[in-house]
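Chain A, query sequence.
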Amino acid sequence: MTSAQEFDQDVVVETEQTPYQGSVSSKRELFELFNGRIPLMPDNGLTTAVIKANKDQPPARRWLHQTFTNPARQDDFELQHWVAEDVAKDPYPFAKYNRGLALPTFTTAAYLRCLTTKNWTERETRLLFDLCRRFDRRFIIVHDRYMHQVASNSLTLKPRTVEDLKDRYYDCLAKLAADLKMPPNCMERSYRFDHEHETNRKQQLEAIYARTTEQVHEEDDLKAQLRQVRQRKIELGIRRDLAGLTAALATQAKKLKAKTKTSKQSPASSPALKVNKRESARKSVNNNSRVQVKRRSQNMFKPFKNVDPRIQRFIDGKLEALKLDQLLSTSKVSTGYGDIRNGLLALGNVTKSMHQIREEGLAAIQRRNLLLRQRNIDPPPLPAALASMTPRAKAPESK
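Chain A, predicted structure.
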């Protein structure tokens, strides 16, 4: 026996034939076709029982192809459509969506009483109201139809703009509402159309829309120059503040020196007061032996906390230049000394912030110049205050 025959014998598997069992959903011929094999397509569930159950349902609705008229139309125009038999006699269902605006009407007497003007005639006003009623106040379409009437009747009708039509319509609406004695807070009487503002708005919009590419670039350059001018104003304001602060510190230092000179030249206190002070000091020491003696100079020369070291060196240098560390540490001197130190601290912080602002301005100008060079545009020269600066300027330090 060859190997192929052996392979065939190994592959063939005899399956036992399952006997037929009567079923409602299948017959013998269909069962013999399956022969115990699983079908490839899934069952859709439509068995004989399901089909018989569906026969008991009512039949589908009948549909009719009939003509109809739209109540929104005034010409009795007829069309045809399919409609269910049970609703065939109902009116057209989409006619309820035809909602028009309730616009007022006026007679010739009402026109002569409250709507007479020099620029508009009664015929033009009636034409405007008829077009607004026909096109639901869509003033762009109203203006187009109005100008079509002007072209055909150029002798009796004047050309108008959209703003002229709006102004005339809302003005007549307010006058008719007042003539009918409607409440003052109603929309017809309270709304006022601004003809001048609307005209200027459209002119500005057309001017912006009609700009060329060169004009857009020129506007960008002007905006950049405006930012430079504002930055320059900020820098000048900081310089003025620094000059005023320096002058105030100098005057305060002079007053402090004058006070110390007068305190040295004042007469000594009486011996009785000295004896009383000594006795009170001895009593306080005897009552509380843990009292710690402190000098005012300790608080005067105590460094600030959480301050930039460069600002601290700046403060120390200024104090050494003013020679304020050689004064007597009286209460007034220590108070004035503390005020001067606080002023120098504020001066250092302002100077530091000024350098940061200058660095940011210089970086912005460099980015602006780079963009201008990419567009083949020569950048403007740097301001004199920024020409000698480097991107990283240090805070002021005393020598």
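Strands lie at 63-69, 78-84. DSSP finds 15 helices and two strands in the chain.
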